[in-house]
Structure formats: structure tokens, C-alpha cells
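Q: Got a minute? One more chain.
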Amino acid sequence: MRELISIEECASRLAMIFPRTAFDPAVSNRLAGTAVAAMLYVDAVAEEGEDAELVKWVRPSTCLWLSEEAYKRDDEGSRDAYYAAALRSKSAVEALHRTWGVDYQSLYKDNTREPLRDETLSAWLEFGVVRARAGVPATSPKPRWILESHFAELFDPRLRDAFLATSIERWRGDHLSPAMRLRAQIARQREDRSHAVKVELPTGEMRELEPGPASLIIRELIEVWAPMRLRDPVVVTISEPGKKIYTADAERLEGLGIEIDQTALLPDAVLADIGTETTTFWIVEAVASDGPITEDRKRSLEAWALEQRIPIDTCRFLSAFVSRNDQAARRRLKDLAAGTFAWYADEPTFELAWYELEEHTDLPDIRHLRQQ
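A: Always. Here it is, folded:
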């Protein structure tokens, strides 16, 4: 049987597949998420062309009678026992819970059968999400619904982030009409824009970054840290997960004497201070969960800088965190590379420097840090 995700995650993924601004909420609400979870729970999933007699068909009550206690039991024996009981009656499901020594409380009342059948499952049938068993009328109490395996794959716990988004786009391309795909695309773009992190660059230009904690760190870095730390800051690049890369205009890059290869592995951000005698480049990693500038990462970034014609002696390296109390900071502070800096968004007027002491090294004159 397939590994399970939470019912809430099922509903969340449905909302990604069928954005509510483009599709009826019935195909992605929590009831729909419960239906997907229940069909995965009892392994009511069919491959194309699979013998109808060899698969597990369900009826709406199989989904409605599922309980939180049952869903916690993800071993095959419990899942098979629930399926067998749900095929018989609700009383059989209650009796099964007694054998488990737990109270029974179904996730939904029986009167939600019609919305699930008439709104959710019927729409899913149109989209190719589920299959209805031939020869069984829609109002029959016999089990007649099963989840298509290609759709079930979208609820694999191993699919995350960009891989999940790519899989969803591929599924839409294979199974939705062009009009439906266009509706989903426009809805997703609107949703992205409504949650985008807006950052004002030193030039006054506004940029929209992908929603997420890393973008929030980058925004604070550009709007708060850069004006304090750099004499005349310029944002050279901002790299985001998936697809978006902001690069300064070609004329400015030419003036800086550098070339940015957008196909290379980029740091999260590169800022330049053009107010110093020699332009200084700050190479930044925004550490929302992981990815500070370690010794290995620093070597990789130095190699990247050389490829972009940025002299190593003009480079500074900064790991930016949300807070000293953030889990990522507590876990990875010990891994910072020598000769790098750390900054915390919730203490913006402070900065940590990690460097190797030489004999009789004087303490840095912090009054001139902004000029270094």
C-alpha cells in the first residue's frame, strides 16, 4: 500500500492542483481531501486497464466513515480491516474500533454523502481524477469509485516543493483540457502575486519575490542591512527557487566589469558596494532552513565568482538568518566558514564576523565597519 500524507496535506495539494479561483471549491475542500486520503488509505487506486474485479472500489460512505483513529493506523492489516468493515456497514466500522480499544467518531456525517457524490466525485470524473465502475448506477449503494493511479502519484510524500509543482503541471498537461489548464495557470499566477514578497531595491525599483521565508530574509537584507552596511549599494542578482533570477541591467554590469551566467548555480543574492574605492561584492545566502556559507560552499562561491570575472579579494560572504533563536541559526552557526559574516533580520544593527586570529591581532575598529 502507498505511504500516506495527512488529510490536511491532501486538501492542500488539491488546492494546488485545482486553485479555488478557477475551479469549484468542491474539488479541493477538506471533504475532498478526506476522500483522497480515504481512497489512498484503503488502496482504492487503479492502473489504466487494470481488471475491475481485482481492484478495491469504494462508495462515498467509505470516505465519510473514516476516523482519525483509523487513519493513524497505517499498517496494511488495519487498512484492510477498515475497508472490509466499511463495505459491510457503519456498525461494522464501529465494531472494528472497539477491537482496537478506541472510541469511534467518523470524520463526516452520513448527510454529506450527496455533496461528495454529486459535486466532488462527479467533477473529478470529468477531470480524470477518478473512475466510475461500469454498470453501477450513480445512486447505487454498491462501491463504484476508484482513484486513478496517475492522480494518486501527486500525493506521494516524497514529492515536495519544486518536484511537486512540476508533477502537478505535468498532470494538468496530460489530463486537463487547454481551457482548464489556462484557468489553472491564471489562478496560480494571481495567487502567487497576492502572496509575493515585495522588495524595494536601492534604485527605488520594486521587485516581487517568491513567497517564503528566504524571500523575507532577502527583503530585509536589501532594505535594511544594505543601506546601513554599504556606502552605495547595488543589487547585482537575486536568485529564487525554481525559475526566477533578477539580474542588474546589462549596462551596470558592464560598468562593474562582470558577467553573470544565469545558467550557473547562483547564490541567493549578490550585492555590490560601488561607493568604495574598489567595488566590493557581497555574496549572500539566505538561510531559512539550511544552506549557510560553509567552507565547501565558500570554495564553490569563490569559483563561481571567478567565472563571473569577480576578483576574489573583492568578495565578502554573508549568511543571513531570521534570528539567533531560529533553528537554522542554532544548528548551523558552528559550520560557518572562516572569513565570513552572519546577520540576523531581527537584530539588524548587529553583525557577526568569523575570522581566524593571528598572534597579537587587534580587535577590529567597529566604527569603520561600514567602510570596509
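A: DSSP finds 14 helices and twelve strands in the chain.
Q: Perfect, thanks.
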